Amino acid sequence: MSTTKPYEWSFFGDYTGLETGLEAICGMLELKWTANGGLPVTLVRTKTSTELIVKFDGVRAEISYGLNHHLFRAIGLLAESLSLSEPFEIREEPQFDTIGFMLDCSRNAVATTDSVKELLRYMALMGMNMLMLYTEDTYTVEDEPYFGYMRGRYTPEELRECDAYAEELGIELIPCIQTLAHLETFLKWEASTELRDTNDVLLVGQDRTYEFIDRMVGSASQIFRSRRIHIGMDEAHGLGRGRALDLYGNRDKFEMMNDHLSKVNEITQSYGLEPMIWSDMFFRIGSETHDYYDLEAVVDESHVSRISRGTQLVYWDYYHYEQEFYETMIRKHRQLGSNPVFAGGIWTWLGLCTHYDRTMKCSNAGLQACKQEGVREVFATAWGDNGAESHLWSILPGLQLYAEHAYSKVLDEQKLRQRTEFCTGIPYEHYMNLEKLDDIPGLLTDHGDLSNPSKYLLWQDVLLGLFDKHFQDIDVSGHYERLANQYRDLATSSRSSQRLFELPARLSDVLALKADLGIRMKRAYDSSDRQSLEHIAAIELPEILLRVEALRVTHRHQWMATNKPFGWEVLDLRYGGVTARLRTAMDRVTDYLNGVASRLEELEEQRLYFDDRERRGVAGTDYFISYHRIASAGTMT
């Protein structure tokens, strides 16, 4: 990114304690901070945080700010808008006290400290002030060697380094852990048997469990400056259904949740921490259908009174498009005694590309509802379900969306586009092109949104063709061939663009040949078209193997530049599975052509829809993210 001249700035006024952060942001903007000369910028720290003001009179600039993160946003606004010939004044009214982000560091991808620092710089420039690193078992707990074993867990020193850097940029780094469910990768070890209720839920009501949680919380308390902590407790569907059922019988789930929460709260309080939890389990327990978003759910008043008043509820919702729905859910949270924190979603969890359209529709509705209902704390989440295949830096337009909402009563979409390009160095429209990986013309869904074909077409087996029927009348090959050319052009526009678009270009290269190969192979087999089968075995399959390897290498380079090496083995195994099955397909077709195999049973099987559209009578293609279901109809677990 670059700024309008002059490139040298001199700062005057009140910025005590923010020198390091200012240096980082100036470096990001390619500005030279000088003692004298250049553009004089006066910094005025006010006692109120209700307004951020940036002025330029043609000669000098002035910034009035109340909170540290407002200053860093203001520096960016000034650099973006600066014109020697045109004075201006920018006024923004912050809508939230907390505007943050939660990065998933538990689904194999654990961002390096350098990546976390780069992320913090982007967040500061946008005006955000809170970051959570979601760590289920990817941090260090004393005397628990299997906790985060071979998972790339953060050391205390690494987290302290990130925490200190965040502080310099006006950003609060809040520990985000789990103290009930989502602990499968730790609980699978024999060393954790005493702590296990079900495969991913801790055994509540046992001293050993609370001694363990005490060490978890104690670790976070010693590392982070923040006195806040997110202790998770979402999606504990197996609570009381494993060893706890044998020990205690069939206990009331709400009682179990509250008893456990009370004990964990005692632990957090002993360390002087203020806890927050995901709110879904309370609503699920109060719903006849066990649905989080059941507007008819009723939590008994006697249960409400037992919810600790010292615990903030986090309302997470990434799925609804109607502002009224969010408003209703916010009010239902308040009935539980909490002004909730809202967590929306940047849709990164469907595969190798971020879904921006769904991100925008859901987040716009949710954030506008928060403003309407007076919610003061919001953050975006970016989950890495099923292997963290998506690239970290594809989230930046989503972060910008949350930041622009945070400084305007109503989102200015034109400003969002301009700010995205300024803060990231990549045009907003270029980011939006990434979603085309999953936007195949003619592919019908029953919800009006995109599916995730780029994932399941990459990992599916060409001999089995579990998704082939969905694409039998669609020019999927032509779609990806066009995309490959488009992404290659975009990748050449800047270094930042290269790291963003090189992988989609490689993926499109693969899918331009592989996506409909199973369809063409079965068609040739059914019609006894030996010439086409020979071409597939001798020319196309070897070429796809080369393209898959080029994709794997690019993906590995991207991963290693962003994340710790742990977790990459999962994707290596997936790529290895694809290449092994491509070689088997080549061998099988060759054997058939040479008379070694009298038939190809895999190609004789009827192709069925992966979804249940024939029963329902509507196109049902949604998103499919479970690799083991995509790769085989057999058992892989």
- CA-CA gap between termini: 47 Å
Helicity level: 40-55%
Number of helices: 24
CATH class of the largest domain: Alpha Beta
β-strand amount: 5-15%
Count every beta strand, where a strand is a DSSP E run of 2 or more residues: 16
Assign the CATH superfamily of the largest domain. Answer: Glycosidases
Give the overall shape.
Answer: globular
Report the C-alpha radius of gyration, rounded. Answer: 26 Å
The biggest sheet, with number of strands, parallel, antiparallel or mixed sense and barrel status, is: 8 strands, parallel
Q: Report the CATH topology name of the largest domain.
A: TIM Barrel
- Mean pLDDT across the residues is 94
Structural class: alpha/beta
Major sheet: arrangement of strands:
9-8-7-16-15-14-13-12
Number of domains: 3
CATH architecture of the largest domain: Alpha-Beta Barrel
Which regions are unreliable across 5 or more consecutive residues at pLDDT < 50?
none
